[in-house]
From TrEMBL:
It holds the Pfam family GIY-YIG. It comes from marine sediment metagenome. Residues 1-95 form the GIY-YIG domain. This is GIY-YIG domain-containing protein.
Amino acid sequence: MYCIYTIQNKLNNKVYVGQSKNYKKRWSDHKRHARNLWLGKNKPADSCIQVIHMAMAKYGVDNFELKIINEYDTQKEVDSAEIELIDRLQSRSNKKGYNIIPGGRNGVGSGPDHPLYGKSAHNRLFTKEQEPEVCQKYSDEKLTITKLAEIYHCEQSTVYKMLQRNDIEILGNKVFSKGKYYSPDTEFKKEQTPHNKLFTTEQETEICKLYTAEELSTTEIAMKYNCHRTVIIRLLDRHNTDKRNRGFYSKGKVAHNRLFDLDTEEEIISKYSDDRMTLTVLGKRYNCDRSTISDILDRYGVNKRVGKLTDADKIKIVEEYKTIKSQSKLAKKYGVSKPTIGKILKTAPLTNTNNFAAV
């Protein structure tokens, strides 16, 4: 279902006429382009920016209203209606609207309306008689796409697309590897232990036993056998051994690489809870990342504060951004993260600005 819609400026009554299958998404796209233009993420010269977007950025999204005019069943009908409405409202005039082109899709239909619909491409490699033959060789005779490409002197992608066009299921490599012939040398090598294998069969069994029965960690086993722990992990995977979570070994233990001792951690918690210091301030004071402070609070079950900005603060942020032009500075000033500032700017109502030409 197609629809014709208008977007009207409430302040000067200028109008834009458009068509869409999903008017809600189209309206959301118009507002997003206008907001990105206002924030400086897009420029008026960008291909995605239309005159209507510059007008919405200048006057504010709230000063524009979307109306659904009518619905249509076919592309031809909606094209004709759009052209007629643009002409009737004179929305291509600079004084009355924001349209640039007469409307429609330039007379080129799609699907059954396209002039080439149902016709074979003049440069198609296979004839209608050859395509079933190729499909039969692939499905029944199990010739690979590579082999078929060699037989018909074409690219593998050509055969692949032809099979897809005829709804032929693309077979996996395992189908073509069944019954594959190996030379006597290869068969002999398959039965031998690789020369670069680190452990014997007996040692591998012992390692699995150390991990499962004696509950040694992969790191401890690696130190015992003088190898990297990834070698042990791959060995366990090869023997289908269920691996334990690393937290299994840390229960009741203090990590050897913990940054602060217990007294310092208690001091940090006190400054956060009693002195109301933020994570960022504590991170700078103790020369660590704020995430380290956050982990300490989580470990002791301390409820973290959720900083909320008032509506007055949000209005100040929007106004100050026009002069500061830095989300990082605003985040530092108001004690919040940079993404929080970005979200406030994104959801704030657009106000008048002189950054755009008169539209």
